[in-house]
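#lab-general

N.A. 3:47 PM
ok so I finally got the sequence cleaned up, no stray characters, all 98 residues accounted for. can someone with queue access submit it? mine expired

B.Y. 3:52 PM
send it over

N.A. 3:53 PM
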Amino acid sequence: MNAAAFLAAIRSRAKTISTHPDPLVGALTFLEEHGDTGEGRMLRRIIDTLASGKGDYAESDLYLLRDKMLAVVVALIEARERGFYSEEEWRRWRKPAP
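B.Y. 4:20 PM
back already:
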């Protein structure tokens, strides 16, 4: 599944959106709490995908994301679409998963 299809599938599964005023800070907070889990590694991959526009995912990757994570990711997707952050900011936050 390519990056665009994966991000669209995430958006369709999310029941809520994070209300954090700064989605990347919200994502970093999530990573502080869950960074070494499967969800944390997936969030790092998704941030990398949002920054680069590239990424390949398996359909099963969708099931690694629980409600809180989905809400964070949808907020990031919307921030990317609305140009909330500059390209330089996305590159700075980009940190591929190990």
